[in-house]
Amino acid sequence: MALLCYNRGCGQRYDPESNSDDSCTYHPGVPVFHDALKGWSCCKRRTTDFSDFLSIVGCTKGLHSNEKPPEPVKPEVKTTSEKKELADCKPKFNEHIIQAPKPIECINRPSSDEPMVKLQLKISASLKQALDKLKLSENDKAVTEEDSGEIKIGTSCKNGGCLKTFAGPQSNEEVCQYHNGVPIFHEGMKYWSCCRRKTSDFNTFLSQEGCTKGTHLWTKKDDGKKVVPCRHDWHQTGSGVTISIYAKNSLPELSYVEANSTIVSLLCDCPVCNTVYSPQWHVKVFILHIYPYIQISIVWIWGAGTLPAVEGI
Q1: Domain boundaries along the sequence of the chain
Q2: Is the whole model's pTM more than 0.70, yes or no?
């Protein structure tokens, strides 16, 4: 009598007397359904169609069996009352063990009356070379012509914006058209303070026609050193503060920087071009790194001989 084989994936009828070790082709595993894919746990083939899943050929050979394979053990499902009991045992909030922060160490601000100390200056090689060239060019100039009042042919007019040169006594009778202000360079724009015709091109700026008429200035008297404003800025990093003073060709031996724990003052002297670079008085508050702590400090950048009185320090 033919019997029905209950091996998974077989379902054929067989004769027990002719049943051999390779008569049945079946799946020893269990069906797996995951993410719309269907397959058997014993082999890797997967499909999304249920009919294709039923027609997947078994991956194992063996004897036919008329005994139903044991059902897979289902996970124990807890009742609602058991779930409620477990939920009651859990804390109603998440516990976080925290540690109180350490008290902030009180740092007393040093007095601004502390004695000022001169800082060591480091001179770059490029500045030394530039100063040497300027000294040589100054020594080569002949100053006797200016002392005698004689004007050399080809001397350019010293008025700003005038491009005329001295061609003889007749040049003194010409009308000089010049700018009586000073050149200003700001945010990529170039213009004269007297007429404010702005341009971004440097050649266009140089060729701007003057806004004032007068006489040519062939020689300019040396009025000695003078204090002029100087562009400066600063930026802060994690390790300290960098202050930049844009004073070209300044002499280190005539310039100095003094500082204490709260105040910085500096004088930048440029005798080669008869100029003492100094910004107008500014008081700026920023973070200044003074070992071994960081504190708020006031920076003074100056060009006078004495410091003015500042209230509120």
Answers
A1: 3-62, 117-132+224-299, 152-214
A2: no
